Amino acid sequence: KVRKTEIVIHCAGDTRFTLPISKAFESMADLAYFTARFSLLTWNVKTHIHVSTTFVGWYLKNGSLVSESLTPEGCGTQVDEQGEHVNTYFQAKTYAESCVNSLFTSQVGRKLHGKTCRIVRLATLGPAIDFPRIAWGAGHPSSPVCAALAAQCADPNIIFPNAGLDVIPVDIAVNQILAITASAHALQKLPTTHRLHPKNPAAPTSKHLAEVPCYHVACGRGDESRIPMTLLNDEKVKIEEPYIPTSNLLKVYDPFITKIV
Are 17 and 88 in contact (CB under 8 A)? Predict the structure, then answer.
């Protein structure tokens, strides 16, 4: 069955925000690298989809603007246990994206692999709106929400009143992943002479690190589709004995807490 596989959608990874940096890399960056290598080396695989998180966008140095660009300039070859980072989850996800980007980017001097690749960043996942049934998944809060509920309360004076997390129903998110996958895989059906076909040697290449197309899947419908940070920081919604210190919560959500996005 593996030999007949044409499309690989890689979603694996740990969603905890409190892992040691080495463990976070093992469960995210390493898996991303080896899965991408599998897709490149398996002749029948034509399309590779790497599912990431929109929070990687907040890691960018240009503030809290969601950007389609990746952050390879922040990625070295060594894992620095003592280095500064927003949190281990963001850091590992950033390196994972960089691995995929580096492996699938067509560059001068590198033989064309003929594969299509996309990176899809998901926002906070919420209960389903329709499939497989209304509110499916409501009993399993997403990891960002769990991290907030398990954290100690932060000083409410530092939280911007309009800050919040964008939430997208899980079935809508899956539909978007499949739509992006279908669009990418459709390029393989084009004649190899077509300017967009990955095997066309005339297709644009880069002397530098080019970027694999990166998509954000978010809701963006306004306040009704966002969880206010003031609510997540409310003592009434916290677990009885929070185990994440305030400092960690701030490192996870600093852009959301301090700015309107």
Answer: yes
Residues shown for the chain = 261
Beta strands in 11-66 (DSSP E): 47-53
pLDDT value for 113:
85
- What separation in angstroms does the CA of 50 have from each of 8, 18, 59, 212? 8, 23, 18, 10
Reported as a single tens digit per residue, the pLDDT across 199-239 is: 887 766 555 555 688 888 887 677 777 888 889 899 999 98
Check if the beta carbon of residue 135 is closer than 8 Å to that of residue 128.
yes
* H or E element at residue 92: helix 88-104
Residue with tokens 């690190």: 209
Q: At residue 59, what are phi and psi to the nearest 5 degrees?
A: -75, -20
Query: φ and ψ at 151, to 5 degrees?
Result: -100, 155
Nearest by Cα to 121 from 13, 17, 217 = 217
**pLDDT higher than 90, residue 33:** yes
Query: Phi then psi for 108, rounded to 5 degrees?
Result: -60, 130
pLDDT band at 108 (very low <50, low <70, confident <90, very high): low
CA-nearest of 230, 233, 228 to 246 is 233
Q: Which residue has the tokens 């669009």?
A: 183
19 φ/ψ angles, rounded to the nearest 5 degrees: -70, 150
Beta bridge mates, 204: none
| Average confidence (pLDDT) over 100-108 | 79
> Residue 189: exposed, middle, or buried by beta-carbon count in 10 A (0-12, 13-18, 19+)?
exposed
Is pLDDT larger for residue 249 or for residue 24? Answer: 24
The pTM of this model reads 0.83
